[in-house]
Amino acid sequence: MRKVLAASVAFVFLASIATEADAAQRKAYRTEAASKVGKKREPAKEPFPGLPNGPLQMVVSIGSQHATLYANGQRIEVAKVSTGTPGHPTPLGVFSVIEKDRWHRSNLYGAAPMYYMHRLTWSGVAMHEGMLPGYAASHGCIRMPTAFVSRLWQISKLGVRVVIARNDPAPYEFGHAKLFNPRLKPVADQVSELRPIERLRPTIAANEITTGAGTRPVVLAQAATATDDAARIPDAADQSPDVPKVVIETVPSVRAAQADAVSPAAMPVQSAQSIEAPPPPPAPAEVEITATMPAPAPAAAPAPAAATPAPAPAAAAEAATDSEPEKRDPSRAEPNKPLPPRNRAAEPVKKAGQVAVFVSKKEKKIFVRVGFVPVFDMPIEIANPDQPLGTHVFTAMAVLDGGARMRWNTITMPAEQPVARYEVKGTTKKAGRNSAPVPAPAVAKAPSSAAEALDRIKMPQEAIDRISELLIPGSSLVVSDHGLGNETGRYTEFVVLTR
Question: Is 85 exposed, middle or buried (0-12, 13-18, 19+ CB in 10 A)?
Fold first, then answer.
């Protein structure tokens, strides 16, 4: 009995110890599981903590082999880069991001990986992930560390301005009377944009008050306009390609008669004592033919009351000239570029967006693009044509004063000094033994500062008004002595090559 009793006590003691150990183990497991769940539910970290709201700007320094990211004019981060070798140099100038591809591979160099690619030109210059040996080693692209470009990928968008220079210019706050400001539309213009029925609602309310609530309301007829249809139907460019259709109108004149019958100008407004508006005329006979359905023979159309004589060829040509703007020879201002490949994952077509303005001293013109699409160009006047303007990049940062003023900053690119060459036996090569330097051509005058350059430019008032109506933060104005770079083309903003 003593042995059995002792064995029972020992068993109970061991069981209690095991129970406590098991409870402790379960508690530790629950704590660990809860910590994992908490970690999973934590929000993703910001790519750049404390990033201010505002347009992004990137400045790449060839001499220092680093790139600096700015947001809303504030310096965010500096990253080491590797640019092009002397045999494959990285071009200097003003660019913008025109395409992004997370898993891009090179089309020129054996499908080499170019992940987190930000394309700057269609000829092959881009910012992407790559090896950084500590010196210029690429074929013209700008290699960046993975830790930086992967985070840049998350916040960058098409149109981000990229300035590539030999030194390291920085943006600074800038104000000038000739910089564009948003233009608020007058009240009359805002009212004119309303649909016709909206403009007549005050009159209808006044009639109801005058005639009393017991009378029958006035019935108004309204014809559908192209603007209303555009507001209701999605953009055709964003839809899948349309299937070709064959439409046969058996009564061509009915459509015109219907438009005249229901238009407000052709139909008088009935008084409060009228019964109802006249019923709409019957819809025109319209048959839609598919590929599997034979086309019926069109019915004979009734003879029109009075035949309208066709306009003379000269008059038609004159009308076409008045209704369409004069077309510019694209080879003079914007040379044709090879079309980008059509098998990209996302076609970089922007139908609306930031405004890009380029003032060229070489071409004596102002060019305007909206969302990578050319809008118009006009001639300008530049005072003191013998003095260089320099290259200045003005960026609209934020709207101030309730939409009446825009805050700007600017990046001024120092002029590229001509490099001295060395001549040996009639040939030009790098410096070597028994070689005599050939002096570089002297610069006649120093380029103007940003303020002086704007003071010398006289833009047409029409161009200023049209730009002001389209202006949004992120828009830019580039002033340069150079003309449109040969990289400027379809689906790009203005590419200005300074060297």
Answer: middle
Q: Structural domain tally of the chain?
A: 2
Write out the H or E segment, with its range, that includes residue 486.
none
Residue at 218 is within a domain: no
- Asked if residue 71 belongs to a domain, the reply is yes
Domain enclosing residue 428, as ranges: 350-482
As a whole number of angstroms, the distance between CA 98 and CA 119 comes to 6
C-alpha to C-alpha distance for 100 and 104, rounded to whole angstroms? 9
DSSP bridge partners of 369: 356, 374
- With beta carbons less than 8 A apart as the criterion, state whether 65 and 137 touch: no
CATH number for the domain that contains residue 457: 2.40.440
Query: Do residues 196 and 264 make contact, with C-beta atoms less than 8 angstroms apart?
Result: yes
Element (H, E) at 80: strand 74-80
Query: Does any domain span residue 8?
Result: no
SS3 142: strand
Per-residue pLDDT of the chain (499 residues; tens, 9 = 90+): 877 777 777 766 666 665 565 566 556 655 555 554 444 444 557 899 999 999 999 999 999 999 999 999 999 999 999 999 999 999 999 999 999 999 999 888 888 999 999 999 999 999 999 999 999 999 999 999 999 999 999 999 999 999 999 999 999 999 999 999 998 765 455 444 444 545 555 655 655 555 454 444 444 444 444 444 443 333 333 333 444 444 444 434 444 444 444 444 444 444 334 334 445 554 444 434 334 444 444 444 444 444 444 444 444 444 444 433 444 444 444 444 444 444 433 434 444 689 999 999 999 999 999 999 999 999 999 999 999 999 999 999 999 999 899 999 999 998 876 554 444 444 444 444 555 555 555 556 899 999 999 999 999 999 999 999 999 999 999 999 999 989 999 889 999 999 8
CATH code for the domain in which residue 146 is found: 2.40.440.10
Residue 68 lies in a domain: yes
**Of the residues 113, 142, 170, the one at which a domain ends:** 170
Domain boundary among 142, 170, 198: 170
